[in-house]
Amino acid sequence: MAANILKAGFPLAVWNRTAAKSAEAAHLGASVAATPSEAARDADVVLLCLPAAEEVRDVLTREDGIFASARRGTIVVDCSTIDPASSRDVAARCAARGLDFLEAPLSGGTIGAKNGTLTLMIGGDAAVLERARPVLEAVGKNLFHVGGPGAGQTVKLCNQMIFAAQMVAVAEAFALLDDAGIDPALATRIFSTSTADCTVVRGRIPVPGVQPEAPPSNGWEPGFATKWMAKDLKLAEELARDTNRPVVQTAVNHQLMRLAMLAGYAEKDLSALGLVLREQRR
Amino acid sequence: MAANILKAGFPLAVWNRTAAKSAEAAHLGASVAATPSEAARDADVVLLCLPAAEEVRDVLTREDGIFASARRGTIVVDCSTIDPASSRDVAARCAARGLDFLEAPLSGGTIGAKNGTLTLMIGGDAAVLERARPVLEAVGKNLFHVGGPGAGQTVKLCNQMIFAAQMVAVAEAFALLDDAGIDPALATRIFSTSTADCTVVRGRIPVPGVQPEAPPSNGWEPGFATKWMAKDLKLAEELARDTNRPVVQTAVNHQLMRLAMLAGYAEKDLSALGLVLREQRR
Amino acid sequence: MAANILKAGFPLAVWNRTAAKSAEAAHLGASVAATPSEAARDADVVLLCLPAAEEVRDVLTREDGIFASARRGTIVVDCSTIDPASSRDVAARCAARGLDFLEAPLSGGTIGAKNGTLTLMIGGDAAVLERARPVLEAVGKNLFHVGGPGAGQTVKLCNQMIFAAQMVAVAEAFALLDDAGIDPALATRIFSTSTADCTVVRGRIPVPGVQPEAPPSNGWEPGFATKWMAKDLKLAEELARDTNRPVVQTAVNHQLMRLAMLAGYAEKDLSALGLVLREQRR
Amino acid sequence: MAANILKAGFPLAVWNRTAAKSAEAAHLGASVAATPSEAARDADVVLLCLPAAEEVRDVLTREDGIFASARRGTIVVDCSTIDPASSRDVAARCAARGLDFLEAPLSGGTIGAKNGTLTLMIGGDAAVLERARPVLEAVGKNLFHVGGPGAGQTVKLCNQMIFAAQMVAVAEAFALLDDAGIDPALATRIFSTSTADCTVVRGRIPVPGVQPEAPPSNGWEPGFATKWMAKDLKLAEELARDTNRPVVQTAVNHQLMRLAMLAGYAEKDLSALGLVLREQRR
C-alpha cells in the first residue's frame, strides 16, 4: 500500500509498531516516523491498518498518538477491520478532536494490496470521502461508499462470512476428492466453470502445487492469516447478536478456524484448514 | 437441452414421465416416445436426466425400459446426480447388457441448460466419451473427463457442497445487511469485486429485485430446487461416510436446506433460504 | 442377556455369526445352534440383536434362516436398533409367515445388559407383548410399550440423539476444564448435583481414572462403540428427513462421531471423543 | 435466596435495581437499602447476583457502590455468572480495597433457589470460604471449592454447555416424536430410565402438560431465560477462544438459542426452543 501511495506521487510518513517493517517503505521514499504523533503531524490524510479496535483506539489516544499532533480537518482513514460499534465510537472521538473520519476496510489480500486493486468498503461522510479519494484511489481501484461510520465495517464482516464459507466448503470438498483419488488440479479447472466457482476456487485451493502462486503452494504464506479470519468471524457473530440473528453456518466456520489454529496454523493463510482436514486421518 | 441437441442437427426422441413435458420438445422437432424402450430403440446415445438412483435403475430395467430395446454399443449417458456407488452399479448393469455407459452430471442450472453452456463432469471410458462427444458438446460447452464411473458423480457432489455453502453464507450475510439497513444492490456490487465473489453473488442474491433475471426476483423460480440441493448434500454426506470423513459445514448446510423445506420452499430455488432467514423475525 | 434369560429358568439356544461368541453362553447352559434356523426351531420367542436392518432381514430370510424353521405363532423380538420403516417392513414379512413380531430396541449398554436393568422400547401388538413379557422381563427391568412397529425404534433413535448430545457436550466441556487445569474428578462431582447432571456425567466422563468402572478408565472399552452411535445418528437424521425436520445439533454430533472414527476410535466407546478433542492440540 | 438466608437467622439488607423486587424480601424481614453502599455498610458478607460483568463492576465501584462503604475484611461473594477473566479482575479490585472475594456462581434454577438446594461453584481463598460458609450453606446445600478466582466461573460455564446441549437435543428429539405421533409423556417416562436421562428430561420436557411444575406447562415461565443461556454460551465460546479450543456443538447450541430469541422467547425459559422447533412447520 505504501508503495502504491508513493508511486502516485504523495509524500508519505510511516510508523509501524515493529520498526523493521518501516524499512521497506523507507527504501521506496517514505520518511519514517518515531511515533504515531510524528507521522500524523501536518498530514492531510492518516491511514490506519491495525489488528483490532483496541489498537486503533490506542494509536489515536496514546500520549504520542495521532490526537496529539493532527491538525483540525485532517482525515483519519481506518482501514482496519473492527466491529461497527467501535468504529462509530472512533468516529465520534475523531469528531470531538475536530478530525474527519472514514472507515475503509479492505478486501483483496496481500496480492490486491501489492497491485493496488483492493476493494474499499467505506463508511463516513461523502464529502470527506471526496477529499480523501485521490489517496484512496492509489490504494484500491474499487471504492464503495456504503453509508455512515459502521456501514463499511458491516459490509466487510459480511464479506468475510462469505469468503470463510467458501474456504471451509472447498477444504471439505477437496478432502473428499483426495479420498477418492481425483486429481485436484482437474477438479479446480472444473469448478472454475461450474456453480462452485468462487474466489477460493480461483486462488486458494488448499492443495500444494495446484496453484503455484497461491499460499498452499508456498508454505501456506503469505495470505490472510487464520487467526484474523477467526477474529473477523467472531466480530460477525457479535454483530448478529445485536439483532439476535442466528448465523449457524458462520458459527461453525469460526469453530473450524479454531481447529486450524489449535493445529498450529494460526499465522498461516486460512487455506491451511484444508491441510488440517486431510491430516486428521491417522 | 433438447432444443440444443435439435439445433445441432441430431434426430431426437424424447420420453418424460410427465407426458406434457414432452410437448415443448415435440414442438421443436423431437419425436415423442410412449415408453423409455421406444425412445431408446435405434438410438446411438441415450441421455438420462432423473431425480435419483432409483429412477435411473427403473428407467433402464423396467419392462418397457431402455434395456428392453437398446442395441449393443448404444451409449447410455446418465446426466442425473446420484451417488458414485449407484453410478458404478448402473455402469456394470449396462456393461452386462452390452451397452456403453457414461455418467455426466451437469452444473449450470436452467440458464446453462438453455444456453448450452453447462459443465459436464464425466465418468466412464475415454473412448466412449469420444464417440459421444458430438452430442454432449451440443449440451454443454465444458466437457471434463474425470475418471471411471463414480468419479464424475464425486466431483459433482463436491461441486454442490461448495455451491450450497455459498448460498447459505450469502443468505446469512444478507440477513445481517438487512438488519443494518444496507442497500443489498450496493452490497452485491461490492462483493462482486471482493473476496466474497462467487456464483451465488453473481446470480442468486436472495433479495427480490437485486438481480432481475435471478430466481429471487421471479418468485424464487425457476432455478435449482431446495429439495434437490438437500438430496445432493445428503449424498455428499453419505460419500463422506465411506471414509469416515467429517464434513461439519456440509451437514449444517443440509439441515438449513431442510429448514427452508419445512418452511414450504422445497420446490423453490435454493435461494429461498434467504427469505426464510429474514422471515424468522416476528 | 443370555445369562439373565438362563438365570430366569428359560431354555435357550444361541447362534452368533462369530461362533466363538456363543461359547460363554454355552458354558452357562445354553445350547449352541449351527444356524439361525436351528436356533429358532421350536422356539416360543426368538430374540435378535444385530447391527443393522440388512442383517435382520438376512437372518430371517436366508436359506438357513429363521423363516425356514419357526412355527406359526413364534414371537420374533428384534432388539436391534434399525430405522422405523425397515422395522415395519420386517414386521410385515413376519406376519406374512404367520409369525408374531415385536421390536424392542434396548438402552442401558453393556452394564445394563449384564445386570438385567435394560430399558426396552417396544413396538408391536400389546397382546403379543404380554405373551413375550416373561422372557423380556428377564432381559430388562423397564418394559415400555410405545405403539405399533416403528414406534419403539423412533423412541430409541430419539434416545440416542439425547445421549450423543450429552457425550459431545461433556467432551467439549472437559477439554476446557483440562485447559484451565481444573480437577476432572471434582468437576464430575459438581456436575452430578447441578443442571449438568446426565447419564454421561454419571458414567462416561471422558478422562481416564475419574470413574474406575467407566470405559475411559478401561481403554475406552467396553461400552457403546462410536461407530454404532454414528450409525444411530445417521438413522435419526434420515427419520428427520421424512418430515423435513431440521436437526442441526444432531447432524453436528454425527459429524463429531465421524471425527472420532477418523482418529481411529470407531470400535471404542463413544466417550473416546473426549480423547480426540483433547488430543487435537499439538 | 433472601428467604433462606433470613430463615437461617442472619440479618439481611437487600438492594435491587428494580426497587419493587425488594418488597418481598422486606415482607420476610429484610431491611431495604436505598443504594448498594447502604446495603453493604457493616455487612460481614455481601452477596451479588447480577446479569453480567459490567453490572458487577458497576455495583462495586459506582459512587454509591459497595466500595464506598464496605469495611476491610468484608467478604464479597459474587453469585453472578461472568467470564473467568472478569472475575479475576473483580477479585483484584476487591483485594485492592482490603475486601475478601469469592465467586460462587449457582446452578439449580429458581426451584433450587427457593428450596435452598443450589449448587455453588466457588472460586477464591479456602479460608475466606470457611468464614462465609454459614451464610452460603443457607443458600445452597452443595458447596464446592474449585480453586482460585475464575475456576468457579469456568466450571459454571462448562455446566451451562452441558445443560444447553441437553435442552437442544431434547427439543430436536421431541419434535421428531411429535411428527411420529408418539405420546410425549410416555417418552419422558422411558427416557428417565434410559441413557437419555438428564436434568432436562427430568424437568424441562418442552411440551406443555407433560410436567405440570415445569416451565413449558406454565407459559414457559419462570425458569432460566433463553437470553441468559445465550449469554452464558457466548462466554463459554470466549473461554474456549483463549486456548483456541473448538467447541462446535456449543457454538451451534448458542445459535439455536438465538433462533428462539428471534422468535420472541428471549425472556422465556430456554425450553421454549422446543416450541420454536415445532412451530417452524407451516
Main sheet properties of chain A: 6 strands, mixed
Proportion in β-strands of chain A: 5-15%
So, CATH architecture of the largest domain in chain A?
3-Layer(aba) Sandwich
What is the largest interface, and how many residues per chain? C-D, 67 and 68 residues
How would you characterize the overall build of this protein?
Chain A has 282 residues and is of the alpha/beta class. Chain A has two domains: 2-148, Rossmann fold, CATH 3.40.50; 154-279, N-(1-d-carboxylethyl)-l-norvaline Dehydrogenase, domain 2. Helices cover 51% and strands 12% of the residues of chain A. The first copy, chain A, has 13 helices and eight strands. Chain A has helices spanning 2-7, 22-27, 36-40, 53-61, 84-96, 109-115, 126-139, 151-179, 184-191, 199-203, 226-242, 248-265, 272-279; strands at residues 13-14, 31-32, 45-48, 75-78, 100-103, 106-107, 118-124, 140-147. In chain A, strands 3, 4, 5, 6, 7 and 8 form a six-stranded mixed β-sheet that branches. Chain A has a two-stranded parallel ribbon with strand order 1-2. In chain A, strand 7, helix 7 and strand 8 form a beta-alpha-beta unit. In chain A, helix 8 crosses helix 12 (248-265), helix 8 (151-179) packs parallel to helix 13 (272-279) and helix 11 runs antiparallel to helix 12 (248-265). The N and C termini of chain A lie far apart (43 Å). Chains in contact: A-B, A-C, A-D, B-C, B-D, C-D. Chains C and D meet through strand 8, helix 8, helix 9, helix 11 and helix 12 of C and strand 8, helix 8, helix 9, helix 11 and helix 12 of D.
